[in-house]
Structure formats: C-alpha cells, structure tokens
Design goal:
The protein contains 18 helices and 21 strands. By secondary structure, the protein is an alpha/beta fold. The protein has a 9-stranded mixed β-sheet with strand order 11-8-12-13-21-20-19-16-17, sandwiched between helices.
Length: 488
C-alpha cells in the first residue's frame, strides 16, 4: 500500500501489514487485533484456488458464487472464534457500487440468510452545498438504493456530514430509504474524533443495536473515556511539533494519513501532559532544495522524524536531525528516524565521513546501517512481500537510561517493520562518542533504541511506539518527548 494513496501501513502484533483502519479500531477499542481480521480479495481468491488444486471440492464445479462468499464467511467466523468474540463488527471497505466489494456484500447478505443475528449499518455522505446553503440527501439515497440492489436493507444509517443531520433530513432519509427515523444516526465533523463515541452514546446507538440483535441493554461506563476527552478539550498549554517526513504530497494536496498513528500518539501524550498539540508538516525534500529553511525548525518545540524507505528526501531528514542535535531541540526518531540519527552522528561526531545506510548507498565507506543478515537472502530472491522483521518483538532496556526511566521496566514488547539495522561493527564507536544504545533484542544482537542523554530529549527507536499508544494509555516514550517539548 502506497502511503500517499492509502495512508500508513498499520502493523499488527502478530506481524500483519494492514490498512490503517485497523489502527483506528485498536485505538478506540483498546484491544489487540490480529492479522486475520484483515480479509482481502487476494487472500480469498488465492485460498479458493489452492483448495481447488488440492482437490478439496471433490470434483465439484468451482465458481465465483457460492465459493468466494463462502470463503469470506469462513474467514469472518474464524476470526471471531479465535478471539472468542461474542460480538463481531465487520467493515466492508469502499463504497456501495465498487466492483471490488460486491462479493463481500453478497457474503454479508448470506450471513443473515444463514440465520445469524445480524445488523446492517450503512454509512452515507450528506454534502452541504455552501452556495445553496443546504444539506443534500440525494447521494445517500442513491447509495442505499445500490445497497438494496445487492440484497441488503440497512437497519441503521449513519449520516456523515460537515454538520449534524437535522430532523428535516432525517425524515426524508427515513421515508426514501425504508429506515425508521430513530435508526438515523448523526455523525458530523468533530474537532476531536474521540468525542464521537460519546455522541453515539447520546443517541443511544449502542442500545439500539443491542435491541435489534435481541440482546439485553448494558450499563455504559464511559468515565475513563470521558476523562481522556476532557483532558484533550481542557488542555491549557500548547506544544508545536514539527514532523519532518516525505510522504505528504499527492497531486495538489497533502495527505496527513501517511503518518496517522504518529499524529494520534502525539495527541494522546499531549493530552496526558495537559497540552494541545499543533502539528506542523515539514517536507524534508525542501531542506535539500534550500538548506536555509532549516532555521524554521527553531520555531518548533520538538521534532519527529518518522519511518520511511528509500533515498528520496533522506539528506533533508539527516540535516534536520543535525539541526535538532546541535540546537538541543527535543528530537524523536521512529524506525528510519533512528537509522538517520545514527548516520548523522557517525558523520558529524564520530568523524566517519560518508557514513550511510547500504539501503541508500551500497558503496558507502562506513555502512553504519546495514541489512539484517536474515533479510539479505530474502532480498536476493526478490521475495519482498510480507518478509520484513514484523510485529511485536521483545526489547530489553538498559536501566538508568532515558528509555529505561520512561518505561520503568527492563523489558517491553513493541512493533517492528524493518529490514535494516545498526551495524554491530560500529556499536563500540558510536557508544565511545556518547551515543547510548539503550535497547536491544534479549540476546543483545540487534540494537533497538538509541539516545543522547545529555540533551533535553534525543531518542530514536527501531520500532514504532506509535502503534501501541492508546487514548487512555499513551506510549511512555511519546509522553517523555512531549514533556521535554513543554519544558523547551
């Protein structure tokens, strides 16, 4: 998935590379979701074809229907059984009418036909035409008609719009879409998306769903969630964070979704510290075109260099790391951000002129970042798909370090997605010059956290701590970073 088209690639605890929507579900639900909760057309067709090749259909004619919907249903039930779920929420991506999702809609129709307790919730768009001053329901009406053509009548309609759906619109939608008015749920734009569960609760959405399923209503305890939202809304301090990335531009627009988990982790930690974040997007390629622009970083309370791949914009990121280090601006490097911090330190502090990553320059005289030994054979065989070092991995942390003090424990599990590492042969040189490698694999083979403890905050991780940050439980490293930014 290209970040500037589909947003970030979310990494699950068990090593799945998934659409960013799974990240939203983990953040809102506070539960760990595995890779088998991501069901794609490719997975489904591949499994059906392989079953046919193995003779599992016993000579029957294999066709798109019923065998593709059957495999979709099997995967949904399998995911539910593995997690011992008593309630399953299935999102069918895209919009009604996409050719890609028609077989998923057919599977959904069959699930109800098979006798499962099922509720259909349709999310539709109500545009507000400002030159007319009116909210229009026609697009939603047509999407519901298209859904009905697929054999599904929604039980609820969620109205996505810039403003709350009023009674006039609800009445019209109810009449044209065959849904009772109390099943029309308003979902307007909100300054803080974490208020949305509270808005749904006000409309008794959860109670209505349970009633449709024939289940007993449950007492809703949302105190912890309300407290978290209140911290965000009542934050009395401001903190300005510059994210120096390269996956921003797509045509005439900039896409924040490329780094959505980083943004949300910053929000979680800022609220925890009583602050409201202002996130500034900084394209690292601009520093390569005009180095004088680096001085703009002085206006930031902190700088994050997030993950990435390839050589585009890399020298601009390295220049930003150097500026942060030399001007003692709090710095947080994530995955590639750590690797580039090592390159910058090796070049400008350790005297290793031309130091680089072999990902960028295979002929570098000082390969301070090199490919993981187990990855070399994979790359040579051009076996790129889902073969990185992925998912939750143990990280051993040295005591009396910045990382150790923030985590408050000597071992944690964080999520990884990388092929390259800090070269073991340069570890001694880095540490001798003051770059402390405070986290590693339990066998001490792969270095996973690096820091400069004499600065206000200068820390990088080979893993992605943003994937384990939650609204009510922010990642400790992000909290430490935001605290340092506020002190600045």
């Amino acid at each position: 998935m290209r970040p500037t088209e589909h947003g970030e690639v979310w990494v699950t605890e068990d090593g799945g590379e998934i659409d960013q929507d799974l990240g939203h579900y983990e953040r809102f639900l506070g539960v760990t979701i595995g890779r088998d909760h991501n069901i794609t057309t490719g997975q489904v067709y591949r499994e059906v074809i392989e079953k046919e090749r193995r003779g599992e259909f016993l000579g029957k004619t294999v066709e798109v229907i019923p065998h593709i919907p059957d495999e979709i249903k099997r995967r949904i039930k399998n995911a539910a059984e593995k997690t011992k779920a008593d309630f399953v929420l299935v999102e069918i991506g895209g919009v009604v009418g996409d050719y890609q999702n028609i077989l998923f809609l057919e599977a959904a129709r069959q699930i109800r036909f098979d006798g499962e307790k099922t509720v259909f919730v349709h999310v539709g768009f109500l545009p507000v035409l400002h030159h007319l001053g009116e909210m229009k329901s026609k697009p939603l009406q047509h999407s519901v008609r298209a859904l009905m053509q697929a054999g599904i009548i929604p039980d609820f309609i969620v109205c996505r719009s810039e403003y709350p759906a009023d009674d006039v619109r609800k009445d019209k939608i109810s009449m044209f879409c065959n849904v009772k008015e109390d099943g029309i749920i308003s979902n307007p734009d909100m300054e803080n998306v974490y208020e949305l569960p509270l808005l749904f609760d006000e409309q008794k959405f959860g109670e209505k769903v349970l009633e449709k399923l024939g289940l007993e209503p449950k007492n809703t305890d949302m105190k912890e969630w309300k407290d978290a939202v209140a911290r965000m809304k009542n934050a009395s301090k401001n903190v300005k964070i510059g994210i120096v990335g390269k996956y921003f531009d797509i045509g005439s627009f900039k896409l924040a979704d490329s780094y959505i988990s980083v943004i949300e982790a910053v929000k979680h930690a800022s609220a925890w510290c009583g602050a409201r974040p202002e996130i500034i997007w900084i394209d690292s390629k601009e520093f390569e075109k005009n180095p004088a622009k680096l001085s703009e970083l002085r206006n930031m309370d902190g700088i994050i260099v997030p993950g990435g791949f390839g050589s585009s914009g890399v020298e601009g990121k390295i220049a930003a790391v150097k500026y942060a280090r030399e001007n003692n601006i709090p710095f947080f490097g994530l995955c590639y951000g750590l690797q580039l911090a090592v390159i910058e330190f090796a070049r400008n502090v350790c005297g290793l002129k031309g130091a680089n990553s072999t990902e960028i320059d295979e002929r570098t005289p000082y390969p301070v970042i090199d490919i993981l030994p187990g990855q070399r054979k994979i790359i040579e065989g051009k076996n790129y798909g889902a073969t990185m070092r992925l998912g939750g991995q143990a990280v051993s942390i040295k005591p009396d370090t910045v990382a150790g003090n923030l985590y408050g424990k000597d071992s944690v599990t964080e999520r990884f997605r990388h092929r390259y590492e800090i070269s073991p042969q340069y570890v001694e040189t880095l540490e001798k010059n003051g770059f402390i490698l405070s986290g590693s694999t339990p066998d001490n083979r792969i270095k996973q956290i690096g820091e400069l403890p004499k600065l206000k905050f200068f820390l990088g991780t080979q893993f992605h701590p943003e994937f384990t940050s939650r609204v009510t439980d922010p990642n400790p490293l992000f909290v430490g970073f935001i605290k340092a930014c506020l002190e600045k």
